[in-house]
Design brief:
The structure is a single chain. It is built from eight helices and eight strands; from the N terminus they run E-E-E-H-E-E-E-E-E-H-H-H-H-H-H-H. Strands 1-2-7-6-3-8 form a six-stranded antiparallel barrel. It is elongated.
Length: 355
């Protein structure tokens, strides 16, 4: 290495703590502390020694966990210790200087962290009154309560996120499995000739048409509707820093929850209750159309979204719109339901991929 580029540690964190921390400066560098006690605050640059693995140093996007952010930003756009050169920077209150030992308050380093440099905090030079920052920086703990994330904390956080995304993916698959299993069981028990051109799906839940099979179709609607709730809840992991995308996804989730409830009600109020059944069926297909349009609009430009899934989703929305406008053809109902199930499966796959 070029000697001019050598990095020399000038000290080490002997005692870490939220209230007070002690930094020991190596004897060769102690003369550099002269006059530092005239400042109330100093800037400490340290080496985040718990984040020096190859994986950490090759990670370029992270979740700013201290700010409760559920989307990734570049390491150069946040203060994460996981970065190519794990250098930490912290403005701390200088409490005491005793020989080569400095006592400070508000240091966010661990015990054993090597000290790279110390500089005085000078408000005239270090304060920018009109600085522009993203909204997420305004949310999080105050400076003095911030403690660095340990590798195990970060791993636990990432694990929790992956588990949540996996649950959303699994429940998406469950919607397909439950609905298809109960629907085709009911179809097998239907006593009369049945085909999608002449028969509505809801006919399978009519006890007058199918005394033995109706219960299976209705239970399938209830279970599939219940499985949709965690599926839609899991879409929050698609949030990004863009205000419009996050709020559009929130509206998508709200519409999704109502559509899930409507599907449950379709099972509760079968064709044996024609007035209620018609209301909830119409509500479900209108809400399902809204979900398809909103979800695709919010996700089609997402960097991790598989674009062909979005194009397929718009095609499904077109079929659904046809059903809403022309509700006299049972075949369109079949196409709407099963293409929508296909979309749920593809979105579940993409969510797994995101995890």
């Amino acid at each position: 290495m070029n000697k001019d580029r050598d990095l020399r540690f000038i000290g080490v964190v002997d005692q870490a703590g939220e209230q007070e921390a002690k930094i020991r400066i190596f004897p060769d560098f102690c003369p550099g502390l002269k006059g530092i006690d005239e400042f109330s605050h100093i800037i400490v640059l340290y080496w985040a020694h718990l984040h020096t693995s190859e994986k950490d140093r090759h990670t370029l996007q992270v979740f700013p966990r201290r700010h409760s952010v559920d989307y990734e930003v570049g390491v150069f756009a946040c203060r994460s210790p996981t970065r190519p050169n794990p250098i930490g920077l912290c403005v701390v209150e200088l409490v005491n200087v005793d020989g080569c030992t400095i006592t400070v308050r508000g240091l966010d380093a661990f015990q054993g962290s090597p000290i790279i440099d110390i500089k005085p905090y000078i408000p005239r030079a270090d304060t920018v009154t009109d600085a522009r920052v993203p909204d997420w920086t305004h949310h999080g703990p105050p400076h003095e309560s911030i403690q660095p994330d340990s590798p195990s904390d970060r791993t636990q956080h990432m694990g929790e996120m992956r588990n949540e995304m996996a649950i959303a993916g699994i429940t998406g698959i469950m919607v397909i499995v439950l609905y298809c299993a109960f629907t085709f069981t009911s179809l097998a028990l239907f006593p009369k000739p049945y085909n999608p051109i002449n028969n509505w799906l809801s006919d399978l839940g009519n006890s007058s048409y199918s005394p033995r099979g109706a219960v299976f179709y209705n239970v399938g609607c209830v279970l599939a509707g219940l499985a949709l709730f965690p599926f839609y809840a899991g879409t929050r992991r698609w949030y990004t820093k863009e205000y419009w995308r996050k709020h559009l996804l929130l509206v998508t989730q709200a519409a999704g929850f109502f559509s899930a409830f409507a599907l449950v009600m379709i099972g509760v109020f079968s064709e044996d209750c024609p007035t209620q059944h018609l209301f909830w069926s119409q509500a479900f297909f209108v809400l399902n159309l809204a979900v398809l349009i909103l979800a695709n609009t919010s996700l089609i430009t997402h960097p991790n979204f598989i674009k062909p899934i979005g194009y397929y989703g718009y095609a499904v929305a077109a079929i659904n719109l046809t059903l809403v406008l022309i509700s006299t053809t049972p075949l369109i109902e079949w196409l709407t339901v099963f293409t929508a199930l296909g979309y749920a499966g593809l979105l579940a796959y993409n969510t797994f991929k995101l995890a």
